[in-house]
Amino acid sequence: MALLRIGWGEDLQMICVLLVCFLMQIIDVSADVIINNSDNSTVSILSMPSTFGALLPPAGLTGYLAIADPLTACDRILPPPENFSNFDFFALIRRGSCNFDKKVLLAQESGYRGAIVFNNENNGIFPMTAESSTFEIAIPSVFVGLDGGEILFESDYTTGSMVTMTRTITLPWGYYLYPFITVITTCLIFSCFYGIAKFIRDRRRLRRIRLSKDHLKKLPVIKFKKGDDRYDVCAICLDEYEEGNKLRILPCQHAFHCKCIDPWLTNNRRTCPICKRKVVPPGVPDSDEESDDSTDENTPLLGGSSNRSSPIPDDSQFGAVGGQRRPSPEVFLDPPAPPPICESYDSGIVNNAATDKEDESTFELAGPENEPSQPDPPEVELLIDIESSNTPTPTV
């Protein structure tokens, strides 16, 4: 049990790791740089956090913005102004001339609490990556486009504007919602086509097994008259026919009330409720639209072909039993009559059976002589022990 628990624990850890990796792949982390101007106006600039350094706190990080000197920050830059030592400062750096991690590391060494790198070519943003070890970088950094960098140039600490870097975690619904909608739409389209095809197929099947109203009108209708012994009771409603009732006569010569048989033929099946014979109106060819192999709850278990009796096999198919040919079923042999028993005694002296049991009387069985057509049965010797001396002795 302990090994089982350990195995389950390892599997659970692996599942958790895979789930975290999956969430890291689908979760989109973005950042916004918010500029709070002195006139209480707010400007939000879309940014992208870097893949190295510290993460922005959930509440964001607020401070003043200072333009890096040199602007590319490929060499050591000037530290923040000393008269604003009670506030955090962010360095505004231009992209190019060196790696991103070097720019952020130099800004950290100069005393900045964060770094904002802007694109010097276009407004495209992407996560900044490191070319070397980034264990030394402990400040957050973001990347903004060209237009965002120009706005930040005009919002440094000299204007009194405060800058807030925030982090936003979102799911890229567009990347996953569109494929999901595509799959669902495709399934719905296929389902609709399948439903339409099934509806058409069912309608055709019902049209084949039901009788149309045009064909129903071709079946003869008579009015019942008392004294007509051919028809007495409707097999559907079990009511006796009355004078003037309209009866519909099927090709099998079974009659029913029109109000009873018409719904059966047009809504259920085009067969007689009594004999199950297919109803084909006079003058209408019996088409093979309804297959004879179709089965339903009314189909008999055994077909007509299966009711035929199979011929009795002879010995030529299975061979003789015991080396003898079996007689045909039509020939019957009478058992032979038992022959009469004729007793004959040998002459002699019968000794005492208690002392000498070796002497025995022999009875010979002879077959009847008046039956020469049958073979003589084998002779059987009956050995009779004379157990006592009280047995009468035959006289000669």
TrEMBL record:
Its main location: membrane. This is E3 ubiquitin-protein ligase RNF13. Residues 234-276 form the RING-type domain. SUPFAM superfamilies: PA domain, RING/U-box. It comes from the Eukaryota. Residues 282-380 are annotated as: Disordered. The chain crosses the membrane at residues 175-200. GO terms for molecular function: ubiquitin protein ligase activity; zinc ion binding. Keywords: Glycoprotein, Membrane, Metal-binding, Signal, Transmembrane, Transmembrane helix, Zinc, Zinc-finger. GO terms for biological process: ubiquitin-dependent protein catabolic process. It is a single-pass type I membrane protein.
